[in-house]
């Protein structure tokens, strides 16, 4: 396994491998959310969170590709088990927002380090992640806004669940 790169510092390699780990963990977290939602009868929300899970795998691939393009074999990380149980649909959405805020902070750190190192390949990747995070935060904020506007009465949750199913591609 090659561990040196002309264009990636050891710190940058570590950050990119961390991005792989965190994106793969995000995928597993959203899969756990999807499974819980399905078990509780929220078919639409389950479908949407399954889609989110699939998207996170694509995000991990971006960092893997950057490492591979520079002759570095990405690490296949061990992942901790994500939370399995939630209190409600609202709890899932709130947990997703907190998770996306943390991922956004991580993406900013990657982009900042790339700027400091003047690594323009990774700056571009970091900007892609940052743009993606703006979209992720917006998607979850929309769901939070719907909960706040219409409440958590069963009829409103049913409508939100149906709408979430429609949001899934």
From TrEMBL:
Residue ranges constituting the Ferritin-like diiron domain according to the UniProt record: 6-151
One Pfam assignment: Ferritin
Top-level taxonomic group: Bacteria
InterPro entries hit by this protein: Ferritin-like (IPR012347), Ferritin-like_diiron (IPR009040), Ferritin-like_SF (IPR009078), Ferritin_DPS_dom (IPR008331), Ferritin_prok (IPR041719)
Coiled coil ranges: none
Transmembrane regions listed in the UniProt entry: none
Protein family (similarity comment): Belongs to the ferritin family. Prokaryotic subfamily.
This protein's name: Ferritin
Organism: Bizionia gelidisalsuginis
Higher taxonomy: Bacteria, Pseudomonadati, Bacteroidota, Flavobacteriia, Flavobacteriales
């Amino acid at each position: 396994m090659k561990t040196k790169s002309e264009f990636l510092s050891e710190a940058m390699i570590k950050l990119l491998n961390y991005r792989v780990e965190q994106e793969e963990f995000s995928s597993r977290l959203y899969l756990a959310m999807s499974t819980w939602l399905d078990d509780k009868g929220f078919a639409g929300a389950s479908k949407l969170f399954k889609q989110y899970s699939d998207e996170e795998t694509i995000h991990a691939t971006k960092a893997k590709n950057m490492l591979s393009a520079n002759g570095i074999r990405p690490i296949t990380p061990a992942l901790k088990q994500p939370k399995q149980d939630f209190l409600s649909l609202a709890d899932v959405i709130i947990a997703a927002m907190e998770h996306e805020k943390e991922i956004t902070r991580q993406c900013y750190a990657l982009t900042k380090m790339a700027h400091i190192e003047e690594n323009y390949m990774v700056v571009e990747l970091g900007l892609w992640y940052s743009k993606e995070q703006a979209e992720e935060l917006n998607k979850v904020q929309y769901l939070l806004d719907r909960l706040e506007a219409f409440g958590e009465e069963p009829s409103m949750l049913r409508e939100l669940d149906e709408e979430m199913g429609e949001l899934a591609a």
